[in-house]
Design brief:
single chain, elongated, 11 helices, four-stranded antiparallel beta sheet, about 300 residues, 3 domains
Length: about 300
C-alpha cells in the first residue's frame, strides 16, 4: 500500500523522482518489518527497483526528453519565460553545467502562454525547464551500473568480511572460549569481573555486531545473575554493563557498527583517507576512557 501512495499523492517540494524513491523506501520498510520475503532479498529488491524506476536505462526515464528554453530579454528589462515554467511558488528551474537550481521570480505581465518576470538573478542566456511539472525537472537519472555497483561497494565488502568472521567465531564457539579465557585474569571480585566483562564485550563488539555481541555475552552472565539476590546493586550493574560496553566497543573499528563505515565512505568522497589502523589509533583511547567512566558510574 505504501509503495503506491506516492504515485497518487503529491507531496509539495518533492520531485517526481523523489516520489519514486519514497515509494521504494516505504516498500522496503514494510518488507523489512513484515518479512514476506527474506530480509536479504528485500535489500536486493531495493537495488532492482532503483534500476527499474530511477536509472536512465529504466522504462520511466529511458526515452524521456526534457524541453529546455533559453531565457530572453523582452526589450523591457524583464525576462520572457513560458508560463508553464513557473510553479505555484513563483519559482523557475534553471539548468547549468548539469545542475538544477530554483530561482524566485515576480510576474509583472502575462500574454497568452508567455510571462514577463523580474528576478534578482541575471538569467540572460540561462536555460530553464519549459514545464516545471516534467518528471526530469530537478533530477538527472544515473546509470544502472551505479545502482548495481552498490553490491561491490568497498563498505559492503568490508561488512561482509566482518559478518563472515563473526559467524565463524559463533559456529565454532570461539567467542565463548575466548571470553572464558580473557576473564580469568580479572579474578573473583565483583567489580573486577565487571570491568573484565566490559573490556571483553567491547573487544568482541569491535569486530562483531553490537546486537550479536550483547546476546552472546548475556548468556555468559545469566548464571551469575541467577545467583544474585533481587535487590543486589551489582546485579543491575552487571546487566547494564554488557549493552553499554557493546555500544562503546562498536566505535573502535570501522566495522564495529554501520555508521562508522558510512562516515569513512563520505570522507573518502571528500578526498580524506583514513586507514583501519588510523581509525583504531584515534578511537581506541576514547573507547577505553569511556569504558572506565561507565565502569565507575556503574559502581
Amino acid at each position: 500500500m505504501g509503495f503506491v501512495v506516492p504515485f497518487f499523492v503529491t507531496f509539495a517540494g518533492l520531485s517526481f523522482a523523489g516520489h519514486l524513491a519514497l515509494s521504494i523506501f516505504l516498500l522496503a520498510a514494510f518488507f523489512w518489518m513484515t518479512e514476506p520475503i527474506p530480509i536479504y532479498s528485500t535489500s536486493i529488491l531495493v537495488i532492482f527497483l532503483g534500476v527499474l524506476l530511477l536509472s536512465g536505462q529504466g522504462p520511466i526515464f529511458q526515452n524521456s526528453q526534457l524541453e529546455l528554453t533559453e531565457i530572453s530579454d523582452g526589450g523591457t528589462g524583464n525576462y520572457q519565460v513560458p508560463i508553464t515554467a513557473i510553479n505555484s511558488k513563483n519559482e523557475i528551474y534553471t539548468y547549468q553545467n548539469g545542475k538544477w537550481a530554483k530561482v524566485l521570480v515576480e510576474i509583472v505581465n502575462q500574454q497568452g502562454d508567455t510571462a514577463e518576470v523580474l528576478s534578482q538573478t541575471d538569467l540572460i542566456g540561462i536555460s530553464i525547464a519549459t514545464n516545471y511539472r516534467h518528471k526530469l525537472v530537478g533530477y538527472s537519472p544515473g546509470k544502472s551500473a551505479d545502482y548495481m555497483g552498490t553490491l561491490a561497494n568497498p563498505i559492503i565488502i568490508l561488512f561482509l568480511g566482518g559478518f563472515m568472521i563473526a559467524e565463524a567465531a559463533v559456529k565454532y564457539n570461539f567467542d565463548k572460549n575466548l571470553t572464558k579465557y580473557l576473564l580469568k585474569p580479572f579474578g573473583t571480585k565483583p567489580y573486577s569481573i565487571l570491568i573484565g566483562l566490559m573490556l571483553v564485550t567491547a573487544g568482541l563488539s569491535a569486530f562483531m555486531s553490537n546486537t550479536a555481541t550483547t546476546a552472546m555475552m548475556m548468556t555468559v552472565i545469566l548464571p551469575i545473575l541467577a545467583q544474585l539476590s533481587k535487590g543486589d546493586h551489582f546485579k543491575t550493574a552487571l546487566a547494564l554493563s554488557i549493552p553499554i560496553a557493546a555500544n562503546l566497543g562498536g566505535i573502535a573499528t570501522p566495522i564495529g557498527t554501520p555508521p562508522n563505515a558510512i562516515v569513512l565512505a563520505n570522507l573518502n568522497q571528500q578526498g580524506i583517507s583514513i586507514t583501519f589502523t588510523d581509525w583504531m589509533l584515534l578511537t581506541v583511547p576514547l573507547v577505553l576512557i569511556l569504558l572506565l567512566v561507565s565502569w565507575w558510574i556503574l559502581q
